[in-house]
Design a protein that fits this description.
Blueprint (H helix, E strand, L loop, with lengths): L1 H21 L1 E5 L3 E3 L3 H18 L2 E3 L2 H11 L8 H10 L4 E10 L2 E10 L5 E9 L4 H16 L12 H14 L2 H11 L5 H8 L15 H4 L4 H46 L1
Parallel strand pairs: 1-3, 1-4, 2-4
Antiparallel strand pairs: 4-5, 5-6
Helix pairs in contact: 1-10, 2-5, 6-10, 7-10
Length: 273
């Protein structure tokens, strides 16, 4: 019996390791405030968290946990505290942290954000966004673009700036065709094998996706003027399709992990008795 319990715990360890491997844990710290209302900065920081969650590729640390650690460490988000925040990121179990500042220059609101590796303290990438139409522009597309650019999954590169409508149309169509229940089932299935979780990570990052729902006969695709526009539409569709599938699969993998951990505690109690 002891051997069986040991095997169960070993299986749980492998599954836990696989899930952690497939998802990067990111902590989003509140932006440094340069002249705005504190509640506005708080709301924009929280909105960036939401945009990161929507990508489906990352586990985002809850705001309440960040606040608790900051209170314990008696830190405030002001001045140059990047090194201290890296240490806080370690306490939170994060692989990466996002920090930055937001302010106003004349009539333009400007936001600068950067992604920092917790282990090395290295700056991985940065993103800037200027809102000329007011703070509402951040809520419209600004913070979504920042999230995409920071995480490197963005199609919003310079050559695509004139094709935002095509990209948005493709992403909307991908979301319409996405079968959330189906890929939640795939997530459950991946938990049934030792190598299911890492295999799902590989499969869900292939472009174009396996068994894509992309339809070349879709009128919105057919009406595009040239090959360049059609290629941009397809790239945007595939990228959104993969993100949606990863979000669905990771959702159920997280639930499976919780169940296996409960099973591990339960079996450990039985073994000790």
């Amino acid at each position: 019996m002891n051997q069986n319990f040991s095997m169960i715990r070993f299986f749980i360890y492998l599954l836990f390791s696989s899930v952690i491997w497939t998802q990067t844990v990111i902590a989003v710290f509140e932006f440094e405030n340069n002249g705005l209302e504190p509640r506005e900065v708080r709301q924009l920081s929280t909105r960036l968290e939401s945009e990161m969650v929507k990508l489906g590729d990352f586990k985002v640390v809850e705001r309440s946990k960040i606040d608790d650690i900051l209170k314990e460490q008696k830190l405030q988000i002001s001045g140059n505290v990047e090194e201290a925040l890296v240490d806080v990121g370690k306490l939170l179990g994060a692989n990466q942290i996002i920090l930055g500042s937001i302010g106003k220059i004349g009539e333009v609101y400007t936001l600068s954000a950067k992604l920092v590796d917790v282990e090395s303290g290295e700056l991985l990438t940065s993103s800037d966004f200027d809102a000329k139409k007011g703070l509402s522009e951040f809520l419209g597309e600004g913070l979504e673009n920042v999230a995409l650019e920071l995480t490197g999954v963005s199609l919003e590169m310079e050559e695509y700036k004139n094709f935002e409508e095509i990209i948005q149309t493709a992403e909307a169509e991908a979301e319409k065709q996405h079968d959330d229940q189906l890929f939640m089932g795939v997530g459950v299935g991946s938990c049934m094998s030792l190598f299911g979780v890492p295999l799902s990570f590989v499969m869900l990052n292939i472009k174009p996706p396996y068994y894509t729902n992309f339809d070349k006969s879709n009128p919105k695709y057919m009406q595009l003027k040239n090959n360049e526009e059609q290629q941009i539409y397809k790239d945007a569709y595939y990228e959104k399709e993969n993100r949606l599938r990863r979000r669905s699969v990771h959702k159920t993998q997280g639930i499976c992990l919780a169940l296996y951990l409960v099973l591990g505690v339960f079996t450990a109690d039985i073994e000790s008795n």
